[in-house]
Design goal:
Layout lengths: L1 H23 L18 H11 L4 E5 L5 H7 L2 H8 L4 E5 L1
Length: 94
């Protein structure tokens, strides 16, 4: 489907830009792992589970910038990851 292909291309482009940002910030390429997968338990739970499986040292997540009011009632993926990730450091970037 063309729409799915376009979404996949946009995702790959965004992930590549994120990787380039990390490289420019001084992270070594062998320490950067970019992975996509199909949601199983929920986005936040899947992120934390993958971090545990891969023995990640830190999770770096972007914020979408939804309003505090909306976030309070709906929650956010980054907020849920912070709540679930008790053994890993989490860095939120804007």
């Amino acid at each position: 489907c063309q729409i799915e292909d376009e979404k996949e291309m946009a995702l790959k482009s965004a992930l590549q830009r994120a990787k380039e940002t990390l490289l420019q910030a001084g992270f070594s390429e062998e320490n950067i792992q970019v992975k996509t997968s199909i949601q199983k338990k929920g986005i936040a739970r899947d992120i934390v589970a993958e971090a545990q499986r891969s023995n990640a040292d830190m999770l770096i997540l972007g914020r979408r910038g939804i309003s505090g009011f909306k976030e309070f009632f709906l929650g956010s993926i980054s907020q849920k990851v912070l709540e679930l990730s008790k053994e890993k450091s989490v860095l939120l970037v804007q």
